Amino acid sequence: MKKTIVTDAQLVGDLLFGPARTLGGSRLGDDELVRLARETFKESNFCVVRHWMVLDVMVPPSTEQNIQSQGLEPTLLYAHETVFDSTGKLPAGASILSGYQRDFDGCLFETPNTIFILGGRGSRKHASWPAIQALAAYDSEQRIQ
Q1: How far is CA 39 from CA 20, 44, 71, 115, in A?
Q2: Per-residue pLDDT averaged across 92-118, rounded?
Q3: What is the DSSP string of 100-135?
Q4: The pLDDT of residue 145 is above 60
Q5: Beta strand pairing status for 46-58 and 21-24?
Q6: Is 52 a residue whose pLDDT tops 90?
Q7: What is the pLDDT of residue 144?
Q8: pTM of the entire structure?
Q9: Which residue of 4, 51, 63, 120 could cross-link 59, Cys pair, CB 3.0 to 4.6 Å?
């Protein structure tokens, strides 16, 4: 029996360009989203993003229980474009892979540390843990260059 080898590039390619369910974020422009976020989330870290994807990570049951015991879900947000980061850590245009989801409602995706405001259309799909690891490695390589 022939063994199939899947490369990190294939995992990332399928994750980013494979089929996904389309979701709608906010229809407001970037400046308006930033202004509203500053007014609404004065005491929280927030990040306005575009070209985003909600990733339901397929993890083993024991890992899922551990994540859920912290009040979180095994769901991540990948955004290809940061519009504004209130902490100043990410420059405009940078991509980001979030931590696990605390809450997701409409155009707001919340992690323990950040509220993400989702601008424009995005998507949602299931992702394997190896694909998430490959994406994180690829994303950090792109930031270094």
Answers
A1: 33, 11, 27, 13
A2: 95
A3: -BSEEETTEEE-SS-EEEEEEEEEEEEEEHHHHHHH
A4: no
A5: unpaired
A6: yes
A7: 37
A8: 0.89
A9: 63
